[in-house]
Amino acid sequence: MNKNILYMAVAVIVGLLAGWLIFGNSGSDANANKDVSDMSDTHDHSGESENQMWTCSMHPQIMQPEAGDCPICGMDLIPAESGAEGLAMNEIKMTENAMALANIQTTMVGNSTMSETDGMISLSGKIATNEENNAVQASYFDGRIERLNVNYEGQKVNRGQLLATIYAPNLVAAQQELLTTASLKESQPALYKAVRNKLKNWKLSDSQIDAIESSGNVRDNFPIYATVSGTVSEVMSREGDYVKQGQPILKVSNLNSVWAEFDAYENQISDLKVGQKIKVVTNAYANKEFDATVSFIDPILKNATRTVTVRATLKNTDDLFKPGMFVTGKLKGQMKMNNQVITVPASAVMWTGERSLVYIKTNPNEPVFEMREVTIGNRNGENYAVIEGLQNGDEIVTNGTFTVDAAAQLQGKKSMMNQGKEQASEMPMSEMEMEFSENFQRQFKKALKPYLQMKDALVASDANQVSAFAKATSTSLKSADIKSLGSMEQSHIKKSIEMLDAIATNDNLENQRDHFVILNENMVPIAMSVNGTDAMLYVQKCPMANNNKGAVWLSTEEEIRNPYYGDAMLTCGSVIEEIK
Fold it and tell me: Which residue ranges does the record assign to the CusB-like barrel-sandwich hybrid domain (predicted)?
C-alpha cells in the first residue's frame, strides 16, 4: 500500500516537471512572440494612421492628416480614398471592377494617311421655307369673316383663288355712296371719281364696281382673292373672326425653292464662305446627292450652342424637300495639317462649347487617367482629325468617356465641368496695382458704408434692403471725380457702378447675388489699393459660389457670414486677405 502511494507521488512529480518543461518555455516563447507581434501591430497601425488622409465631401481639395471639421464649410471630414499614392494632381485611378461595369475602353492613337475624303466638312441641318418666297394674304377692309375657303396648313393656293368672304359694313356704306353719286356723275364727276377710287383702295376691281353700279344692288359680303400661288404655311384667322384692315388671314409659301439651314461649329467657320459648293443628302433620298451653293453665313454666333447658321438654297420643283426634313451637308474644307494626321473616334471627344477634351491613360499598366484639352479639325465620318494635343502612341478613352469624367469630378480633379485651380489665369487681386487720388479715396471710403449694409442685407436675404443700399452705394461712387484716373481704375469703377445699378433695379435675390459676384471682382481690388480704411476689412471667399468658381466679398468682421447663400450656408467661406 505504501509502495503504491510512493509510486503515485513520484508519477505526479514527474508529470509536473514534464509539464513545466513543455508548457512553461512555450508560454515564455508565446509571451515573447506576443510582445513582438504587439510591437509589429503597433508599428503597422501607426503607419496606417500616418498614411490615412481626411477630406471634405463638399470640398475635395481639403486634405488633412487627421479627422476634424472642414475649414471651409464646417462639415465633418471623411476618410479620403487610399491608393492614390504617386498620382499627379489631376490624375484619377479607377478600379478594374468600375472599368468593367462602365465598359470603359481605350484605343492607341496613331498617324493615318489622308485620303481623298479627308478634309470634308459634314454639317447637320434641316429644310426650312424660303422666307424670300413667303407672302401674307391680308384683309383690305374691316369686317367679319363669314366664310374661310382655305383653312388648313399645307393646302395649295393658286393666284386669283377665292380665299375668304367678309362682311364689311364700311363697304356697304361705300356702295350706297357709289349708287348715289352715279346719278350725279355728269354734274359732279370729281365726287363720283373719288367714290370709285375709295372702292379701288379696298381692292375692288373695275368690273366689280361696274357690276354694283349697273345692278343698283348693295352687296353685304365681299370676296378676298389670293394674290400669289403657293402652299399655306400658317392659318392666322378663323371663320367668325373680326379682322382689321391689313390684318393677316393666311401665310403662303412658294416651295419651288427651299432653304437648307445647317449648324456650323466655331472651329469650322474659317473653312466656310459664301458661294462655296455644298452637297446635300436627306434621309428620305439617302442614295441621292443634291448640289447647292452656300448663299448665307450668319454673322452672329449663337452663344448657347456656339454655332452659326449656314444656308444654301435648293430648287424644289419636284416637291422632294419638305420643310422640317433633316439633311446633311458635305463640303470641302482646308485641311490645316500635313499629309500625316492623328484621328480619334468621335466618341472619345467631349465638347463643352468652348473646349474639346479627351481622357488619356497615363499609366500603361494601371487604369490611371488624366483629362487633356485638344484642338480638333474636320470630321470625317465617325472620326475627328486632331490638330493639337495628342501624339502618336497616346492611349485615350474611346468608350465611357463621360463616366471617367464623372469620376474625376467627384474626386475634385480637373474635369469637363471643373477646369481646376491651375486654369485660373486671371491676375490675382493683390497684384492689381492701381492708383487713386486722395479725393477719390475719401469718396470711396464713404461708399463702403452702404456697401457693407448691402452685404448684410444679402446675408439676411432681404431683396428690398439690398436694392436700397445698392442705390446708395452707386450714388456715392457716381459723385466721385474719376476723370484724372487711369483707364484700368476707371474701368473698375464704371463696372462697379453698372453692377450696383443692376442690383438696385432688381428685386430678384438670386439675380442680385449674381451681380454681386461681378461687383466684388471690381470693388475688392479698389479697396485693396486704397490707403488706410477707417476699419479693418477682411476679403472673404466662398469657393462654392459662382457655380463653384468661387466669389469674394468685403467684411469688417472676421467671422464668416456668407452673402451668396445666407442661412443655407451661412459659414461657408474663409478669410483670404486683410486690408488695414
Answer: 141-252
Amino acid found at 580: K
How far apart CA 134 and CA 231 sit, in angstroms, is 9
Phi and psi, residue 170, nearest 5°: -65, -35
- What's the angle, vertex CA 461, arms to CA 456 and CA 467, rounded to 5? 75
Domain 257-332 coded CATH 2.40.50.140: no
Measured CA to CA, the distance from residue 415 to residue 182 in angstroms comes to 85
The residues, any chain, with a CB within 8 Å of residue 260's CB and separated by 6 or more, are 125, 126, 127, 128, 280, 292, 311, 312, 313, 314, 321, 327, 329
Show the cell assigned to 422.
Answer: 491651375
Q: Could you tell me how many helices (H) and strands (E) the chain has, helices first?
A: 12, 29
CA–CA gap between residue 529 and residue 542 (Å, rounded):
22
Q: How much is the CA Rg of the chain, to the nearest whole Å?
A: 41
Distance (Å, whole) CA 276 – CA 310: 11
Q: Which amino acid is at 205?
A: S
Give the model confidence (pLDDT) of 115-144 as tens digits: 445 557 888 899 998 888 888 888 877 889
Cβ partners under 8 Å of residue 298, min gap 6:
308, 309, 310, 311
| The overall pTM is greater than 0.90 | no
Amino acid at 354: E
- What does the alpha-carbon distance between residue 27 and residue 29 come to, in Å, rounded to a whole number? 5
Domain 131-253 class in CATH = mainly beta
Matching CATH number, 96-112+338-411, of 3.40.1030.10, 2.40.420.20, 3.40.50.150, 3.40.50.10170: 2.40.420.20
**Cα–Cα dist 170/185, whole Å:** 22
Taking the C-alpha atoms of residue 493 and residue 519, their distance in angstroms, rounded to an integer, is 10
101 contact partners, CB below 8 Å, separation of at least 6 = none
* DSSP, res 305: T
**How many CA atoms within 13 Å lie on the side-chain side of 44?**
5
Cα–Cα distance measured from residue 374 to residue 394, given in angstroms and rounded to the nearest whole number: 13
Torsion sign over Cα 204, 208, 210, 211: negative
Residues 31, 119: Cα–Cα separation, whole Å: 79
